[in-house]
Structure formats: C-alpha cells, structure tokens
C-alpha cells in the first residue's frame, strides 16, 4: 500500500504543475535571467519525478508477469463463508474469516467418492432351505391388518415389519393402511405410492397378501379387533398375546404400527425384512419415472454427484431444542412450534449440543464436506423441505458448492404437479435421487437417513456420510482459532466410523434398518484381498511420511474418505474412549431417542 501511495502522490504533483512562488527584489522587479533559470530548474525537477514514476510502474508490471498478482483474492473468502452460528447472515469480523483456497490440497489417500472395500461385499437376502413356503389364505390363522403411521419412511418401516409379523403369526396380510391424519396431512393410499401388484407377487412364497378382507368374513365379525402392541415387541410376545386374539377374532388390526417388532430376530426373518424393504416395496410407475428423470438430469450435468438430506426445517429445529444464534426472533418462532409437543421437556440448547442432537447448519454441512475433500466443483442435490431462514440460510452452502440443485430447480411446475400436493410422493422423489447418488449425506438420524443408509449398504456399500455431530459441533465453534488445514484434519478424524464403510458396525449393533448385517455377505477370498490392500496402503503412507520428513506412525489409513484400512472402530477417540465402544453407545442412544417416544406427533416429526 505504501508503494501505491507514492505512485499516486507522484502523479498528483505532475498533474497539478503549480508554479513556485517568486520573491521580488526591493525594487519590486525580478530580472528576466533569474526567472528563466528558475523555470528551467522546475522543468528538470518535474521530468525527474515523471521518470521515477514510470520506472516504478515498469517494475510493478515485471513483478506481476513473473510472480503473479501481489494480492491473492482467494485468500479472502466471500463473507458468506465466514463461520457463524447465527441464521441472520450478519457480516462477521475479519478475524473470523477462514481461507478455503487450499481445500483442494486436503489429503485424499483414496477415492473419497467410493469405499475401496465395497467391492468385496454384496447383498444377500435369499431364504434358507429351512424357511417353509407361505401358508395359503384358507389355512391361515386369520387376517392381519395394520395401520402405518407417520411419513413415507416411517410407514416403510411399519410395512416391512408387518410382513414379518404376518409370517410369525401364519396370518394373511391385508394391504396396509397409511396414516391420513398425521403431521404430514397426506391423503395418499398404499396404491398411490407403492406398486401393489408387485408387492403381492414378489412375496408370494413368503406371506399371503390380499387387498382387503373378504366381504363374507367382515359380515361375520362386524369389525376387526383393534390393539396396539408395545415398541420392539419380540416374536414371543406376538405368539403369546396377538396370536390368541387372532385365532378367536379372525381379524386383528394393529394400530400405530411402526417399530413394533424387535430389532433382533432369527436370520431368516431378518432376510425377509430385506426382501420386503429392498425388493418388494417399489414405487408406482409415475413416481419411478419422475424420480429417474431427476437422476438423469443430475447425471447429464456431472458423472457423479452428492445428495444431501438437510433436515433443517423449522419443526425439526424446534423439536431439537437447539439454538442457532438468531436472537429473540429465533427463540420466539421456534418456541411457538415446540409447544405443539406437550411431552417435550424444557429446551436446553447447550445439553443438546453436547450430546450431538443439534442438526448442523447448511453452512456447516458444506464446510464438513469441503474439509473431507469434496471440491467446490462438486455437484450436489439437496433434499429438503422448507429450510428455516429460507434462502439466506442456504447462501453459505451455495457459495461453498455453486452447483446446487433440488427437484424444483431440475424440473418445472408442470412436471411436479401430480406430486406437489402430496408430501409422501414428493419425499419419494427425493428418496430415489438420494438412493442413486454417488454419495449420500445425512444431517440427522431420522427414518429417511436410516432406511437409505441400510439400502445403500445392501446395494454395494455406496458412500453414506453421517456427521458425527457430538464432535463436530465443538469443532465448528472453535473453527476460527485454527488454520484451514488443521480444521480439515480434525474433521477427518471426527468422521472416522461415520463414512459408510463396510465394517463400521458389528452385527447386532444399531438398528437393523440402518445396519442390515444379516443381509450382507462377504465375497470368497475377500479377507486376503482386504489384507493386501491394507498392507499396500500402509506401505505407501510410510513412504510418503518418510519423504516428507515426518514421524512414521503405522495406524489405519482413514483420511478424508474414512477408509478403514485396519479397523477405525478399534482406534481410540480424542478423549481416550475406545472407538468401537463410543460409536456403539452413540448409535444405540440415538436409536432410543428416535424410536421409543410414544407421543404420536413426535413420532410423525421424526419420520423423515
């Protein structure tokens, strides 16, 4: 700046060209010779100044050519990239600004878009030879009706478990009823969302399914016997409590049927769950076709893309009890919504944040992905409802990832008209795009996140990233106290075990819909090949560290993509807790929170 100031001063003097004041002699006159001499001196002085300015400009031009610009504008990010907890997008002080110019240099020791171990596993849901054929309708113990509750994905879990319960009871299953009175206010029936014919025929050898109870039977019983079973009921419970009622009443209807079957079942019943969820439940042709159109349009823009389920709607934030820095306005608005659930305790934002219950802001999701190694040229599809704070809240994420698309921007109102009035059908479109994305990113552990995580594991362990909010929240709060490289490395360390790797969870840990371990098999000789990959990775890492003059530490290569070269779940976390123990505790504690609450409206909210 001093250099530019001198140049500016020189030019100013030259332009002004003010004559120097002359002093007159006592006689009041100056000789013509003296005047001419002063004039020559002034011209020489001005010529010297001009020459100096020209010389300086020439030097600057040469520096610019050979050394590049003196100021690298990439070192000063757009104000919207500044860390903030507030949703109001107020301009932050300069010391909070973080440079993202070196994001492309974040170490990615393997393909961040795909696990290098995924090729060694495959989905396996065929029944064993011990699994008997379905009982014909005339020989069944009765008719089982179920009323699924909540939104699309909560209903999906209920439908899946209903088929298994019908198998346990040797009952004929009636096509499930969908909830028309929930928070989502969707009047769609089963046939409006799922292919009924395919559902019945694909499960023909497992369970007999009919569209309705025969009229003759209904005339004899007048109405079905209605009951509601506890959460996560065992096979033993259904045999002892439900079967006697089915045998005596002939038709039993189970209400609010979601998560009403135990997580742990016999292997053949678990595989039946997978056949229902991953094969039998297919969307109707109009939904499938529109969903595929959206996928194809994303593929036309880029050969690979990320899908992000933001889940940053006002109702979700109100339910979480978290605070995002929006002042009294935010507290008032979310407080009004929170009063809808009378069973919720008083909000405690700090406690919820410590426990990892607060969804990340859209900006934080974007920063996490950039820290993991995804460049700003990556294409993202965002599945979300009404984002709290609207476009202002999304601005930082769009600045981090300019190639930002939704189903609304990929299509027009005419194309979406058949679906737009129905929340479940719109959710189905997002489901299809998220399922077929190269990388799926969740922002909470609700039903859509769980269902899709399990499905993506079953179909080839496609990359699924779940933010480890318990660790990331404190990291985001202190982001301005560290360099970008340090921040990126800490994010990568936090995300070990949450990157959708094949061995992130042990059998029996976590919810079955998220970790369908009974339905995932290892290919022959996979063990030896995996060991060889790990050995090669360690060798490359050792060589890289030695060449860089670093201390060599032979721990697992996990880096930006979370690859488990040995087993990251056995590593210790930053606070010394064994990684496996810590992750299992977090998975199980979150499952209890989201699946054992009996408040109907809370159940509906957590659905998607």
The number of strands is 13
Structural class computed from helices and strand pairing: alpha/beta
Ranges where pLDDT stays below 50 over 5 or more residues in a row are: 1-30, 64-99, 101-105, 551-581, 587-607
Terminal CA distance reads 55 Å
Q: What fraction, in percent, of the residue positions are helical?
A: 40-55%
How many strands, what sense, and barrel or not for the largest sheet? 6 strands, parallel
Bin the strand percentage. Answer: 5-15%
Shape estimate: globular
Radius of gyration, in angstroms, nearest whole number: 33 Å
Number of domains: 3
Discrete helix count? 23
- Overall pLDDT, averaged? 80
Structure notes:
With 608 residues, the chain is α/β, with parallel strands linked by helices. It has three domains: 2-18 and 35-68; 79-121 and 285-605, no CATH class; 137-280, Rossmann fold, CATH 3.40.50. Helix content is 47%, strand content 7%. The chain is built from 23 helices and 13 strands. Helix 3 (152-169) links the parallel strand 2 (143-148) and strand 3. Residues 1-30, 64-99, 101-105, 551-581 and 587-607 have low confidence and may be disordered.
